[in-house]
Automatic annotation (TrEMBL):
InterPro entries: Glyas_Bleomycin-R_OHBP_Dase
Stretches that traverse the bilayer: 20-41
Protein name as it appears in the record: Glyoxalase-like domain protein
Biological source species: Pseudocalidococcus azoricus BACA0444
Sorted UniProt keywords: Membrane, Transmembrane, Transmembrane helix
């Protein structure tokens, strides 16, 4: 209680009671929770998803040829926040129907391969792409920036490649076994 000889601070007494009421505490907790979620989600790495025709061949290519380091599955994938927000229905790469899994058990976001592409950028590789012409391995992606970063890495390690198209980005790469891999941007129409 504020003494009566300080009338200009009387509003502080009412505010203090309001803050520590049940409603005030709930609002304070919800505000803190919202702030914590914002920090958690804003610090989450950007994830590019790449769909490949052969997951084991892709593992060898990305680990041995492009020398990408294996990454942990980001926490926001563990909590499945894309699916709970309804975003998965907009992007078929989040839960592709082509991933082989037990029909009684839905696919997990951690399925596939995870690599660190840049400091706060990860590459999530999943199976499901069709083979290209001449049974060529295909790696397809909706994100142009992802393929540009992969092309830059191919050039850095002096891996043989042939640029087929700039728009949408499409290039061929020869891996260490002589297998030709087509990396293609899928542009939504």
């Amino acid at each position: 209680m504020i003494p009566s000889f300080i009338p200009h601070l009387a509003w502080l007494d009412a505010a203090w009671d309001g803050i520590f009421s049940t409603q005030g505490v709930m609002i304070l907790l919800l505000t803190l929770y919202g702030g914590a979620m914002w920090v958690f989600l804003s610090s989450a790495p950007k994830v590019y998803t790449l769909m490949v025709s052969d997951l084991e061949q892709a593992r060898k290519f990305y680990e041995e040829e492009l020398r990408l380091s294996v990454a942990d599955v980001p926490l926001h994938y563990y909590y499945n926040y894309e699916q709970t927000l309804g975003v998965a229905s907009l992007d078929p790469l989040y839960i592709p129907s082509a991933i082989s899994y037990n029909q009684n058990q839905p696919p997990r976001p951690s399925d596939g391969l995870w690599y660190q592409l840049k400091k706060n950028t990860q590459l999530h590789i999943i199976s499901g792409a069709n083979y290209g012409e001449k049974s060529r391995q295909r790696h397809v992606c909706f994100d142009r920036e992802c393929l540009k970063q992969l092309l830059k890495r191919v050039q850095t390690y002096h891996i043989r490649y042939k640029l087929r198209r700039e728009e949408p980005l499409n290039f061929l790469v020869k891996d260490y076994t002589g297998q030709v891999i087509e990396l293609a941007e899928i542009s939504p129409k």
